[in-house]
């Protein structure tokens, strides 16, 4: 009996591993930042370049840091969702304009709507590196103490927002 | 499908970008060799199966510049690797460190070889004992076999 059960068991084990592997997205590299303090930055405001905006301005708030760029097509996918969130005043969103040109970024926001409380310019992508950004869009959920609680890679879908992010946002806002 | 399109666009977004300012200081020969060696040890998170030395993705270019700047700034190799790992995690290393989460990764192949060797040894042993137990037939068995071959109904023999 074991003569058949052993290979069968082996087959099932390999099958299970490969099947789970198929469902994983290799693009979603786990962020080492979850549960750690967000890197700090102070950057020029996209709309008023002479004024600076930094992480300390968001202290005591639960907020989203959304990394986007006008050259990023996938950003258009998630943009209506962000605009909705801003309209409903669910959570303040700060836009990190990653490796972009100011005039193009401004034109883009004019065209698609501006969901950002503040948008800052990371023209050379240096702050992006500090946040471990490796693609655009990426979104970080940061709590009142400045700890990164969640990272979403790629465009935020309605499903991801409602199932994963919103419950966490509500919980963090209560505490 | 929508998801697929989004991921394609996402990877495209990664590949195109706006080049940053070039603020590199010239490195000496030792520094250059270190920069190349480090870049060959680090994974490009955009292409994933290329090192940042091989990759032409924007991010790889930026990270190569970062290595360059840090070497020029007098940072050690360990400090630079640490800089990358705190930002991108162990995944950025082509040789991930040995710890609880990577134990199966490192020990897995040895484990499979071990299991294979054990199975092989057991198989060989049973085959050998089977070969040794190949004793000649008794007289009664021989007679029974002969009758069977002749087509007669065999009588039950003691």
How would you describe the overall organization of this protein?
- The complex is a heterodimer of chains A (175) and B (158).
- With 175 residues, chain A is α/β, with parallel strands linked by helices.
- Helix content of chain A is 40%, strand content 19%.
- Chain A has a single domain, classed as Glutaredoxin (3-Layer(aba) Sandwich).
- Chain A has helices spanning 2-23, 74-88, 102-112, 126-130, 158-174, and strands at 42-44, 52-54, 63-68, 93-98, 118-122, 138-142, 148-153.
- In chain A, the strands form two sheets. Chain A has a five-stranded mixed sheet.
- The radius of gyration of chain A is 20 Å and the shape is elongated.
- The termini of chain A are far apart.
- Chain B has 158 residues and is mainly alpha-helical.
- Chain B has two domains: 2-97, Helicase, Ruva Protein, domain 3 (Orthogonal Bundle); 102-150.
- Chain B has six helices and no strands.
- In chain B, helix 2 crosses helix 3.
- The longest helix of chain B is centred in the C-terminal third of the chain and has 30 residues, at 103-132.
- Chain B is rod-shaped, with a radius of gyration of 33 Å.
- The model of chain B is unreliable at 12-22 (pLDDT under 50).
- The chains are: A alpha/beta (175), B mainly alpha (158).
- Chains A and B meet through helix 2 and helix 4 of A and helix 1, helix 3 and helix 4 of B.
Summarize the structure.
The complex is a heterodimer of chains A (175) and B (158). Chain A has five helices and seven strands, in the order H-E-E-E-H-E-H-E-H-E-E-H.
Order of helices and strands of chain B: HHHHHH
Helix content of chain B: 55-70%
- Any idea of the CATH topology of the largest domain in chain B? Helicase, Ruva Protein, domain 3
CATH architecture of the largest domain in chain B: Orthogonal Bundle
Q: Span from first to last CA of chain A? A: 58 Å
* Estimated share of beta-strand residues of chain A: 15-25%
Q: Structural class of the secondary elements of chain B?
A: mainly alpha
What best-fitting shape of chain B do the alpha-carbon axes yield? rod-shaped
Instruction: Give the CATH topology of chain A.
Output: Glutaredoxin
CATH class of chain A: Alpha Beta
């Amino acid at each position: 009996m074991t003569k058949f059960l052993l290979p069968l068991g082996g087959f099932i084990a390999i099958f299970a591993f490969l099947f789970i592997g198929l469902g994983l997205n290799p693009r979603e590299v786990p962020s080492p930042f979850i549960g750690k303090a967000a890197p700090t930055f102070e950057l020029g405001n996209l709309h008023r370049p002479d004024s600076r905006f930094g992480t300390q301005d968001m202290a005591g708030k639960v907020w989203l840091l959304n990394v986007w760029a006008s050259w990023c097509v996938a950003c258009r996918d998630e943009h209506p969702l962000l605009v909705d969130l801003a309209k409903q005043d669910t959570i303040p969103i700060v836009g990190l304009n990653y490796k972009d040109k100011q005039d193009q970024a401004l034109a883009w926001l004019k065209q698609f709507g501006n969901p950002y409380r503040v948008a800052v310019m990371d023209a050379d992508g240096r702050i992006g590196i500090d946040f471990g950004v490796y693609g655009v869009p990426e979104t970080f959920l940061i709590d009142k103490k400045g700890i990164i609680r969640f990272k979403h890679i790629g465009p935020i879908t309605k499903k991801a927002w409602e199932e994963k992010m919103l419950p966490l946002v509500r919980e963090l806002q209560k505490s | 499908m929508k998801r697929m399109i989004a991921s394609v666009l996402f990877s495209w977004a990664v590949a195109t970008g706006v080049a940053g300012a070039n603020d590199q200081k010239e490195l000496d020969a030792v520094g250059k060799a270190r920069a190349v060696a480090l870049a060959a040890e680090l994974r490009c998170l955009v292409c994933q199966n290329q090192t940042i030395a091989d990759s032409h993705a924007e991010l790889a270019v930026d990270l190569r510049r970062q290595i360059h700047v840090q070497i020029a700034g007098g940072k050690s190799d360990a400090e630079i690797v640490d800089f990358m790992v705190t930002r991108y995690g162990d995944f950025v290393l082509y040789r991930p460190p040995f710890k609880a989460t990577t134990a199966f990764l490192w020990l897995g192949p040895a484990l499979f070889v071990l299991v294979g060797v054990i199975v092989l040894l057991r198989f060989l042993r049973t085959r050998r004992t089977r070969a040794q137990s190949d004793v000649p037939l008794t007289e009664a068995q021989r007679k029974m076999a002969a009758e069977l071959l002749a087509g007669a109904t065999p009588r039950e023999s003691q």
